[in-house]
Amino acid sequence: AWVSELPHQQAIAVLLGLAGLLSIVGPSSFTRAFLAITGSAVSGLLVASCCDFFFGGFSWLGSVRNLLKGTAIPVGYGLWAIIFATGVSRWLISTKCGTVHSIDADGAADGGTSGSSLQRPLLATEDNSPARRPS
């Protein structure tokens, strides 16, 4: 609602179009920032719409629409802001979080440095005799 009342709609459309284009073909630093910001905004919208739905919405999509139109409950907007700020903050300070600790193919959690056979050069054991060379 309030977005459609902003002046200079053509300039806004051009700027947003350029931002979208640069997120695909632009420099990787812009792409990472764009993905972190838009990902946090969409994630916040998903969480807030779920909250709005369970606090009296008739449908989940209706809750999304209410949040975007500005007619949702205030708790939804607060939750959206918290999720957005958390996501952007996490990107800014480069915090890596996750629920699963990855283990490499050798079973070593430290990147394969504990007794891994990958420490030897690949060509160290290759036989270079003339009989073994392909013709």
Describe this structure as you would to a colleague:
The chain is mostly helical and about 140 residues long. It has a domain at about 35-95. The chain has 4 helices and no strands. It has helices spanning about 10-25, 30-55, 60-70, 75-90. Helix 2 (about 30-55) packs across helix 3 (about 60-70). It is elongated, with a radius of gyration of 25 Å. The mean pLDDT is about 80. This is DUF4203 domain-containing protein. Keywords: Membrane, Transmembrane, Transmembrane helix. It comes from Alexandrium andersonii.
Main features:
transmembrane helix, 135 residues, mainly alpha, 54% helix
Give a quick rundown of the structure.
This protein has 135 residues and is mostly helical. It contains 4 helices and no strands. It has a domain at 33-95.
- Based on CA atoms alone, the radius of gyration comes out at 25 Å
CA-to-CA gap between the ends? 74 Å
Query: Count the strands?
Result: 0
**How many helices does DSSP assign?**
4
Q: Uncertain spans, ≥5 residues at pLDDT below 50?
A: none
Strand content: under 5%
Task: Bin the helical content.
Answer: 40-55%
What string, H for helix and E for strand, traces the elements in order? HHHH
Largest sheet: none
Mean of the pLDDT scores?
Answer: 82
Structural class determined from secondary elements: mainly alpha
Rough outline: elongated
Region (Disordered): 106-135
Protein name: DUF4203 domain-containing protein
Keywords: Membrane, Transmembrane, Transmembrane helix
Transmembrane segments: 6-26, 33-55, 75-93
